[in-house]
Specification:
Elements lengths: L1 E3 L2 E7 L1 H19 L4 E7 L3 H10 L5 E6 L3 E2 L2 E2 L7 E2 L8 E9 L3 H10 L6 E9 L12 E5 L5 E2 L15 E4 L2
Parallel strand pairs: 3-4, 3-8, 8-9, 9-10
Antiparallel strand pairs: 1-2, 2-12, 4-7, 5-6, 11-12
The structure holds inosinic acid and magnesium ion (MG).
Magnesium ion binds next to loops.
């Protein structure tokens, strides 16, 4: 068990299981890309670890970039999303793969999708390592999903609880 601020977390998903899932995502994406060079766009801060491992597992050439927005405080999604920072690349006619650490309610994703739909991309796809199906209430299709998890707060592998826990190589779930 680990303690972050006032909360206790228990081991949930191992490094090995994460690596296996990332590998599978990389292969699926490469297969669909069919020789085209994708640009992976990670959503900071949470996705930094996923992107780092995903691009190393990617069997082919690819580009990497990051955007940043925040929608979360503490353990409850505020439902509010802030401004987007990043994306200086010309995305016209590119295969853009947005990379998320986790999709919860989908609020962040919908906003990102709106922003990216203004760019004349060739194809916009979404990849997320973790997905909470019980929390997701949007129609937007998620193209690549690593691991589906219950609607409970997790930390580690890029995900934080009020700033802490991002550096953990495995994932922990809140103890209830
Ligand atoms: P959404 O907009 O509700 O889908 O939330 C997306 C963002 O909330 C993610 O990119 C995370 O930063 C954060 N988030 C959602 N669920 C969790 C969790 O279980 N642990 C840590 N952060 C989370
Ligand atoms: Mg995030």
């Amino acid at each position: 068990m680990i303690q972050l601020h006032d909360k206790t977390f228990v081991p949930f998903i191992s490094e090995e299981d994460i690596a296996t899932s990332i590998d599978k995502l990389a292969k699926e994406i490469a297969q669909d890309a069919n020789g085209e060079i994708p640009i992976f766009v990670g959503v900071l801060n949470g996705a930094f670890m996923v992107v780092s491992d995903l691009v190393r597992a990617y069997p082919g050439n690819c580009e990497v970039s990051f955007v940043k927005m925040a929608s979360y405080e503490g353990t409850l999604s505020s439902g509010k999303v802030n401004e987007l920072i990043g994306i200086n690349e010309n995305l016209e006619d590119r295969l853009v793969i947005l990379v998320e650490d986790i999709v919860d309610t989908g609020n962040t994703l919908v906003l990102l999708h709106e922003i990216f739909s203004k760019e004349k991309v060739k194809s916009f796809k979404v990849a997320t390592l973790f997905f909470k199906p019980e929390a997701y209430n949007k129609d937007l299709k998620i193209d690549y999903i690593g691991i589906e998890i219950p609607n409970k707060f997790i930390v580690g592998y890029g995900l934080d609880y009020d700033g802490l826990g991002r550096n953990l190589p495995e994932v922990y779930q809140i103890k209830t």
